[in-house]
Amino acid sequence: MTNLIILPILIPLFTGVILIFLNNRIMAQRVVASISSIGTIIAAWLIVQKVRTDGIQSLNISSWDAPFGITLVSDMLSALLVLTTSIIAFVCLIYSFKSIGEEREKYYYYAVFYFLLVGVNGAFTTGDIFNLFVFFEVMLMSSYVLLVLGGTKIQLRESIKYLLVNVISSALFIIAVAYLYSVVGTLNMAHISARINEISVNGMPGILTVIAVLFLIVFGLKGAIFPLYFWMPGSYYAPPAPVLALFGALLTKVGVYSITRTYTLFFYHDMDTFGILSILAILSIVFGVIGAIAYWDIKNIIIYNIIVAVGVILYGISVLNTASITGAVYYLMHDMLIKAALFLLVGVVISITGTSNLRNISGLINRFPGLGWTFFIAALALAGIPPLSGFVGKLLIVQGGFEGESFLGAFITLMSSLLVLFSVMKIFINGFWGKDRTYVGEEKAPVKQLLIAPVILVVTSALYGIGSEFILPYITQAADTLIDPNIYINAVIKE
Amino acid sequence: MEILMAFVIGILFMTATYLMLSKSLLRIIVGTGLLSHGAHLLILTMGGLKRGAAPILGGNEEGYTDPLPQALILTAIVISFGVTAFFLVLAYRSYQELGTDNVEEMRGTEKDD
Q1: Angstroms from B40 CA to nearest CA on chain A
Q2: Chain B residue with minimal CA distance to A137?
Q3: Which of B69, B76, B98 sits opposite A156 (nearest CB)?
Q4: pLDDT at position B112 over 50
Q5: Burial category of B89 from C-beta neighbours within 10 Å (exposed 0-12, middle 13-18, buried 19 and up)
Q6: Mean pLDDT across the stretch B16-42?
């Protein structure tokens, strides 16, 4: 079935539309949402298998041939990211059932949730640069609504900042696309790559380097890399836990994916831009780590860990050899899973204690051992302790760094693991050990039901680490496409 | 012609940047409006401003203007219209709730929730 790859976009779209009509019937909303979420996971899984056996899948919408119409392209990287997104969405959904509250559910929470998924899955799957912009806007528009839904003071205040930053970066995206269009005269990503290849016989023209840096600024604003992450700690502090988990796991990773895609597909002729990317990635790691160890607030600690992870992944991309790209792809998916898990666990802790200040929390493990040990495993996975999922990715990135003789970056990546471990262990030691306290929300919080969602994610992440032998062929296939753009071009533009 | 447009767009971007750096929320929103005007004019300009008929088939004109940038602008206009409408309502709502439109006073994360 050739239309298979559009299903992860269409299923959430139709679900979102149906959910608009069910806004007052909460049980019906939940049932529809769960069913279609499982449907999306199955569709994404079928795409992964299809890409595994038959290579890159591309679908020309309305049968217009490749450079002229919009093409959807599902290579292994896109397929795996869509699968990971679907799993995270399902988990955040079942967490929302217990935690989000009737007020929000009645005001189209699930509908907007599904429109966010349309945007994310679309951005991962599209093969057209302007269509990528449109899917970005779908995603961002939903994220504005999810961020402000509920209308508390902090949400309103932080939404304004988040919205302003994203309006500016969207305008910059349009500007970058306009420049690129005037140079290459096409919008299809494979065709752009082929045209840039033609004009870069003696090195990439200067104007394309400028456009490459402009794209780095645009996607860096979405993905929170070093000088452009300033909006993130404030904005991500505001929303409730399941929304925060969705944002932390998906939104920044779409920016990271877009940098990966444009840099490996368009701008691979000029290693100087990769040098800039490398420096910014390393600085993101450093500043993220500084933030993560500086705060005594559990939300802020995990938020700064997003910046560290973005830096590690982009460092892997910037080294541009087989080991580092494979590692970056592996680490990307690990990080999506584990960040969602950590934010949901933080949400459980906040629902018990009513605060996110670490100084007011201690001794949680006495009465919530399940929560404590789940958090412990998630923390070890985040830092990259061997049997768990963070290990293989970081190992390959560091290996690639040494092979590419980028010793400083590899060293900083290794050191960052230590400090990341310190920052999450600080939560564990101060929050879970120590003297027993009683909390306000302790009786009311449905801890057991809330824990189901993060436990699913932590188990998935552990299996992802233990079964790395089984998963590595998929990751290698994804990395092959990134290293050799001709595979992508030939799959899209069929002669 | 493109040179003139480049200057006009540059002035739009300059004004937008200046307005977005100010303290009043409404001036910031006006700034985003000018920024998207600039971006849309830029797409039109970068597509080329050659003479040609409007891209409507039916006559027997010699040549047409490039239809692709016009479609892109139409999409971008609608999107920025939606975002601006949302932004204005958000500003109105936060003026009611927070009692200020000065972004300098919209600070802090922990105490005042």
Answers
A1: 8
A2: B79
A3: B98
A4: no
A5: exposed
A6: 95
Q: What is the mean predicted confidence (pLDDT) over A389-408?
A: 91
User: What is the DSSP annotation of A314-356?
Assistant: HHHHHH-SHHHHHHHHHHHHHHHHHHHHHHHHHHHHHHHHS--
Stretch (H or E) spanning A60: strand A57-60
Q: Give the closest residue to A218 by CA, choosing from A182, A271, A177.
A: A177
Rg (CA), chain A: 21
Contacts of B93 in chain A (CB under 8 A): 151, 156
Distance from CA of A153 to the nearest CA of B (A): 6
Of B32, B38, B93, the CB nearest to A156: B93
User: DSSP of chain B, one letter per residue?
Assistant: -HHHHHHHHHHHHHHHHHHHTSSBHHHHHHHHHHHHHHHHHHHHHHT-----B-S-BTB--S-B--HHHHHHHHHHHHHHHHHHHHHHHHHHHHHHHHS--BGGG---SSS--
Residue B85, judged by CB atoms within 10 A of its CB (0-12, 13-18, 19+), counts as exposed
Residue B16 pLDDT > 90? yes
For residue B102, list its beta bridge partners: B24
Q: Give CA–CA dist A78/A322, Å, rounded.
A: 18
CB pairs < 8 Å spanning A and B? 100
pTM, rounded to two decimals:
0.94
If interface means Cβ-Cβ distance under 8 Å, which residues of chain B face chain A?
Answer: 20, 25, 28, 32, 35-36, 38-40, 42-43, 45-48, 68-69, 72, 75-76, 79-80, 82-83, 86-87, 90-91, 93-94, 97-98, 103, 106, 109-110, 112-113
CA distance B94 to chain A (A): 6
Q: What percent of chain B has pLDDT over 90?
A: 64
Decide if A181 and B47 are in contact by the 8 Å CB cutoff.
yes
Band of residue B108 on the pLDDT scale cut at 50, 70, 90 = low
Q: Give yes or no for residue A127 having a pLDDT over 50.
A: yes
- Region A460-466: mean pLDDT is 91
CA-CA distances (angstroms) from residue A330 to A76, A200, A333, A414?
12, 31, 6, 16
Please list every residue in chain A whose beta carbon sits closer than 8 Å to the beta carbon of residue B75. 130, 134
Place of tokens 């539309």: A17
B83: chain A residues, CB-CB within 8 Å: 137, 141, 144, 163, 167, 170
Kindly give, in sequence order, each residue whose CB lies less than 8 Å from that of residue A55, ignoring residues fewer than 6 positions away.
A487, A491
Residue A115 pLDDT greater than 60, yes or no? yes
